[in-house]
Write the structure tokens for this entry.
Amino acid sequence: MSSEQTPTPEATGPRPRRLTYAAMLAALEGLALVVGGVWILVLGLTGEPDDRQQAVTGGITLVVLALLPLLAARGLLGRRSWSRGPAVITQLMALPVAYNLLQADSMAIPAGIALAVVAVAALVLLVNPETTRALGIRGPGSPGNVEK
């Protein structure tokens, strides 16, 4: 068995709430990307877009991008240590998007605020020591990280 399959001593108890909340936020972002992608795809196919090919490509791209946070959420719920990386990357990618939404002069501003709040909250939850321990991630210099 690999270390990914063998539960660590920290991972044998109940899942910490912070880890569950981080997984829920990542899943929420993934679902939002799926909904947005399907919406753009449907509008591109049934509506009168300026460029149908661009609308379809954009919709498919959003649906494919949704896989990253959805897989990360599943991994976080399963306490897989690999899942924190994709979850953190998702949050870091969401921050510039939130900033651009906040720069808009439209109804996108509330969406930018919501996205920024979710991304910052998820980052805080993901780097929390309790979450790190629950995922079995050891920092540099920790016991068990000695090279042989």
